[in-house]
Automatic annotation (TrEMBL):
InterPro entries: Sialidase_sf
Signal peptide interval: 1-18
Keyword Cytoplasm: no
Matching CDD domains: Sialidase_non-viral
Name of the protein described by the UniProt record: Sialidase domain-containing protein
Amino acid sequence: MRSILLILALACLFPVLAEPRPGIAEDDVKPKGEPRRINGYKGIWFDLGQRSEFGSKYSGGLGTYTAKHRPLAIYVPEVQKTFFVYGGTTDKNERHLLAMASYYDHRTHQVPKPVVVHDKQDVDDPHDNPSIQIDPEGHLWVYVSGRGRKRPGHIYRSRIPYDIESFEHLADREFTYPQPWWIEGSGFLFLFTKYTNGRELYWSTSNSDGKSWSEDRKLAGMGGHYQISSEQNGHVITAFNMHPDGNVDKRTNLYFLQTKDNGKTWTTAGGEIVKLPLTDPESTALVHDYRSEGRLVYMKDIGFDDDGNPVILYLTSGSHQPGPAGAPRTWTIAHWTGNTWAIHEVTNSTHNYDMGSLYIEPDGTWRIIAPTEPGPQNYGTGGEIAVWISRDQGKNWNKTRAVTQNSTMNHGYVRRPRNAHDNFYGFWADGNPDSLSASRLYFTNRAGDHVWRLPYEMNDSFATPKALGDMP
């Protein structure tokens, strides 16, 4: 009896450690839900390993990869913070993937040490990077991507609104390329990919708890697809390519679908209801037939014009391999004008996986911030970042500013925060696509005339990002 009382007394005196979260090693779990932090912003480096004469199919600093993980950042005016997620790692010499979350405080101009939401353990692949969403109560939702049918995806929610200190694990499900959209009054409309017969597109819905989900419903299955999507006032739009015979290296064509009723019906840009899943490459959802032209299609970004019409940013190419044989690699805009798709070219780039973002601003300015310029690793992923402006709805474009120049490593995957603040308008990572390197994270303002680097090493709990001009 005395032994039992002693055990009970000790239990009251000493707190019990929290249960390990999936993907977090038991010895990394902190008491009382304290987060595991990394002492700096260290992006993941990756090489797909498919190399040819001019280097890898894609490689380098891929902390903000892929274009199909959306969104990666959100500005919240109520707390004046931009919350963001990225694929991190433990050290510049390691390729140990961590799904990271943090924020930039626009009042103090500082960032905290970033938090590990999910440790991918033996995974080094940024296809498992996270995306982020915020519900009306301010809870942060982190969707950590799985990969194929072997690694499940994970859904986390912050226990406290607008706070990265503690995340609750809600579900693990089969999904890759997570694109969660919060629909006011309905909950989540979740777009994602499953490897059921190639990379096929699906969607599912959930109420606000994020635990109970509708069945996965197939959106498109024509051998496989890559999609990009966006949401505005409950209007969800998606654009995607197709993979003939399931071959991603032959990705081509451009398709578009939309829903305004939380996935109950899907239509073309012109409002024609389509029968799902799409299986016919000649479907009315087809925006442009690039297959007949022998052109490949790489998805980059999608948004809404002032009238709520879709605008798609993508790149066309002549080859899946890097190097001059694939030129021209052309950044292209497809704009639904209300009765037709208008297609306009922007500029040419050096690599299929150069990725940037499209901004359609209230004053009518259309802006692209992207690595369109050759970088120090000329034929590698990414390059030097530039700002391109159009004032006639994408018909004509002018490069107005070089955001980065004389860099030692390529910059890539510039991401547009949802509801972007002028002083944190796009963020990205750098890295050497030719060999393992450290990868640092950056952000720029709307004009592209100021760039800051997030601290790679941190001794204190908070630090001020360093202006590019002050870098050694």
